[in-house]
Amino acid sequence: MLAVAAALGQPAAQAPAGVSASTFSTDLMQLYREARLEDPQVLASFAQAQAGKEHQREAMGALLPQLSLNAGSNRIHQENDLVQQSYDSESYSLVLRQYLYNKAAWENYQKFKSLARQSESQALDVQAEAAVELARRYFTALAAEDELELVRAERRTTQKSLDRVNALYEKQLALVTDQLDLKARVDLLAAQEVDARNQARISREALAEIVGRPVKEKLNRIRDDAQLRVSAQSLENWVREGIALNPALKASESGVEAAGAALRSGKGGHYPTVSLNLSAQETNEGYNNSLAPRTDSYVAGVGVQVPLYSGGSTSARVRGLYQDQLAAEQELEAIRRRVVKEITSAYLTANSNGEKIDANRLALDSAKLSRVAAEKALTYGMVNAVDVLASVRNEFRARRDLLKTQYEFLSNVFTLNRWAGKPPAESVGSVNNWLSPGSPSQAAGVGSDY
User: I need a labelling partner for 400 at 20 to 30 A (CA). Which of 50, 109, 128, 393 fits?
Assistant: First the structure.
């Protein structure tokens, strides 16, 4: 379980009639609940899991008694040297067959039983991956809106510096090159704002694709007081949990079991089958379609069928199924190695992100002080506009680095939980604890000094 140092975020409120949804906020948990009901990939995976159960039941049917009713009515005309006659015949029969021994059918049932478990695990894996994808798009949308607000704030800050230089230039206290440099930067930021606005809209549309509706509400953002840390659980414990709980690994294990059962079913083609046959028949048709008194007959018997030769197809099928089993085993090993790699990578990267966040916060504080000092120094002619421009760029670069690292941390937390086999709802709830309502300007650190 993740160590959470923030209060639980509240779900988004319903917007009253006549009020724009953009004045309300939503969080990751609310969107996750909606996506579970609307994401086509999640819905398709659950349908496949249900289909797997039905296929298992279908295979089980071959092991149960097979009962059939037959009825027939014929018009028969016979001629010979002595007589010529026509008559109607009727026959009714009820036949029951129950396999006493059928290795192929039994192992086929075991195969579909394993495939049903595989479908269930695959559905859980798809749901876990969908939660990661939702979180990725959620934080991409936040990052796009942050970038838009940062570009706007940097443009306003640069414009203020340009206004100062213009005033100094009128007093012949600044160079025209300083004025032109700042003017060029303002124009460039205006162009970047257009692109950032477009990216913010695109990122919202990516969220809408998963949720199934336009997402116009404000998105909850990372709390300022949130202590972004992975739990103190060791990497070895994370890997151990992943090996035991990861749904993709469980699905692959079920696939190996299904391949083994399919191989045994194929070998069952060499085995005899034994069946119990019961039948009851009523007819008025005798030997050689002759008219006979209505007769009831009851038969009970045991049938044995021994396969002798099928052109080599059974042996070839067994060899092919053996190769399928080897392939399934190698796929299982590949998934196991990937689980270890993904957990290790996400764990180490998340821990690194946590340390980097602290460093970025210190760097941002220093860059902000440097920018304020440069702006004051410009007023007294101690620095030129290029120095101020560089300090502004450094500050906003530090802000971008901090926000980027925070989103990378949360994405790695999702990846870690996903490969460790944590339930998606638990992962979303843990990360949602670090979120709270806020505006892009607040998240970007844009204050009154801009």
Answer: 128
Q: Which stretches does DSSP call E strand in 19-83? A: 25-26, 66-79
CATH number at residue 183: 1.20.1600.10
Residue 300 lies in a domain: no
Residue 375 is encoded by which pair of tokens? 């702006």
Domain count, the chain: 1
Beta carbons within 10 angstroms of residue 147's beta carbon: 23
The structure tokens listed for 398 are: 């530090």
Q: Distance between CA atoms of 76 and 290, rounded to whole angstroms?
A: 8
Per-residue pLDDT of 212-268, as tens digits, reads 999 999 999 998 887 888 877 899 999 999 999 999 999 999 999 999 999 999 999
Whole-angstrom distance, CA of residue 31 vs CA of residue 423? 16
Range of the domain at 179: 26-63+102-271+307-443
> What are residue 277's DSSP bridge partners?
97, 301
Distance CA 403, CA 360 (A): 9
Decide if 409 is inside a domain: yes
Tell me the two tokens of residue 362: 């210190």
Kindly report the pTM of this predicted structure.
0.82
CA distance 174 to 384: 8
Distance CA 395, CA 363 (A): 8
> Smallest Cα–Cα separation from 61: which of 99, 95, 94?
99
- The angle formed by the CA atoms of residues 68, 71 and 73, to the nearest 5 degrees, is 165
User: Looking at the DSSP assignment, which residues form a beta bridge with residue 291?
Assistant: 285
CA 285 to chain centre: 65
Q: Which residues contact 337 (CB under 8 A, 6 or more apart)?
A: none
| Residue 190: inside a domain | yes
Identify the three-state secondary structure at position 202: helix
Q: Which of 2, 25, 1, 29 is nearest to 14 (CA)?
A: 25
3 state DSSP class of 86: strand
Whether 125 is in a domain gets the answer yes
As a whole number of angstroms, the distance between CA 388 and CA 171 comes to: 19
Q: Tens of pLDDT along 13-66? A: 343 333 334 557 899 999 999 999 999 999 999 999 999 999 999 999 999 999
Quote the CA–CA distance of 390 and 367 in Å, as a whole number: 10
